[in-house]
Amino acid sequence: MPSLTIRPAILADEPFVTLIVEQAYGHYIERIGRKPAPMTDNYIDYITAGQVWVLAQEQEQEQQLAGVIVLRSEPDHLLVSNVAVATAFQGQGMGRRLLDFADEHARQQGLTELRLYTNELMHENLLIYPKLGWQEYKRAEQDGFRRVYMRKYLQ
Questions:
Q1: Which ranges of 26-146 does DSSP label H, i.e. alpha helix?
Q2: For the chain, what are the domain ranges?
Q3: Contact indicator for 86, 67 with CB cutoff of 8 Å
Q4: What is the torsion angle, in degrees rounded to the nearest 10, for the CA atoms of residue 113, residue 117, residue 120 and residue 124?
Q5: How far is Cα of residue 137 from the mean position of the Cα atoms in its chain?
Q6: SS3 breakdown of the chain: % helix, strand, coil, rounded to 5?
Q7: What is the rounded distance in angstroms from the CA atom of residue 24 to the CA atom of residue 98?
Q8: Among 4, 16, 84, 93, which has the minimal tally of Cβ within 10 Å of its Cβ?
Q9: Shortest CA distance to 34 belongs to which of 139, 144, 118, 126?
Q10: What is the DSSP letter of 110?
Q11: pLDDT tier, 58 (very low <50, low <70, confident <90, very high otherwise)
Q12: Is the pLDDT of residue 130 over 60?
C-alpha cells in the first residue's frame, strides 16, 4: 500500500512542482484569457525560501509527487499562496490533505488565521473552499486578475 508524506520541497523537485502547477491550472487559461498567476511564479525562489511543500506518494522505494502547497508566513496569518494536485491524483482528497497540512503548519507557528485568494473565474474553488471552512472577505483586482480573498480561522 502506498504511503503519503508531506515534506519540504528540494531544488530537485522544481521541475515536478512546475509540472503539477501546469496540470492543475492549465485548463483555466482559456477561461481567464491568460495563464493563471501560479503558472508564472518562480518555484526555485519559493523552494529556496522554504515556502514549498510537496505531497509525495511512496511505493516500493519509488516516490511520485502528487501535490504541492506554497505557504508564506505573515505576522498575523499564514497565506496559502498555491495548492495544486497532479492530474493523476485529482479527486482523491489530496488537495484537502494539503490544506489540512496548512492548518497544522499555522498552528505550529502560533497562528490562528489562514488566508488565500483565487480567481473569481475559478468557480470550482469558490464552491470547494467554503465547504472546508473558508469564508470570503473581499473581492478586488490585483495584477490584472479579479481575485476573491478568503480566510479561515482555526479553533
A1: 29-32, 43-48, 94-108, 123-131
A2: 3-153
A3: yes
A4: -70
A5: 19
A6: 40, 35, 25
A7: 14
A8: 93
A9: 144
A10: T
A11: confident
A12: yes
Among left, alpha and beta (phi > 0; psi -120 to 50; other), residue 69 is beta
What's the whole-number mean pLDDT along residues 99-113? Answer: 97
- Taking CA atoms, 148 is separated from 100, 117, 138, in Å, by 21, 5, 6
Angstrom distance (rounded) from CA 43 to CA 35: 16
> Which whole-number Å values give the CA distances from 76 to 79, 86, 108, 110, 144, in the listed order?
10, 31, 13, 9, 26
Helix (H) or strand (E) holding 42: none
Identify the CATH number of the domain defined by range 3-153: 3.40.630.30
DSSP 62-95: EEEEEEEEEEEE-SS-EEEEEEEE-GGGTTTTHH
Nearest to 17 by CA among 57, 49, 44, 50: 44
